[in-house]
TrEMBL record:
InterPro entries for the chain: SmpB, SsrA-bd_prot, SsrA-bd_prot_CS
GO biological-process terms attached to the record: trans-translation; trans-translation-dependent protein tagging
GN (gene name): smpB
Molecular function per GO: RNA binding
Keywords, alphabetical: Cytoplasm, RNA-binding
Cellular component terms (Gene Ontology): cytosol
Protein name: SsrA-binding protein
Length: 157
């Protein structure tokens, strides 16, 4: 049989700060309901998810404060850059997210926006717990030590 070609995901926006500020728990892949000009603007790769968040209160998941700039070639049919956008998840996944937020005091943060192999825009969201300042320092120390350890092993061997 012929092997399938595996394309890399095209990451449009990455929330690197979330991995520092939160302890990442379970990760979900969600579709996102976009208009035509939003998709074209995403393909140019200029979106931001750094200060966005997800809410699942009304039985549907909605992402707020995600910045997708206006598409320059569109005229009057352009979209609003920071409008709330619906996330496409299964009911069980939404219920699981809602229970974690309500009971355990967790929060839902978007990690990245990307295009999958079929060319559809997806959002990777995670249930996360906020870190305290001392936890952040410990995480930095562990990360630095792992990097130094890699350097030592590479130099020795």
């Amino acid at each position: 049989m012929a092997e399938k070609k595996t394309q890399e995901r095209k990451v449009v926006a990455d929330n690197r700060r979330a991995r520092f500020d939160f302890e990442i728990g379970e990760v979900f892949e969600a579709g996102i309901a976009l208009s035509g000009t939003e998709v074209k603007s995403l393909r140019s790769g200029r979106a931001t998810v750094a200060e966005s968040y997800v809410s699942a209160k009304t039985g549907e998941a909605i992402i707020y404060n995600t910045f997708i700039p206006e598409y320059l070639q569109a005229n009057r049919f352009n979209h609003e850059p920071r409008r709330p956008r619906k996330l496409l998840l299964h009911k069980r996944q939404i219920a699981k997210i809602w229970q974690a937020v309500e009971r355990e005091g967790m929060t839902v943060v978007p990690l990245r926006i990307y295009f999958n192999e079929q060319g559809r825009a997806k959002v990777e969201i995670a249930i996360a717990r906020g870190r305290k300042a001392h936890d952040k320092r410990e995480a930095l120390k562990a990360k630095d030590w792992a990097r130094d350890k890699q350097r030592l092993m590479r130099d020795r061997g």
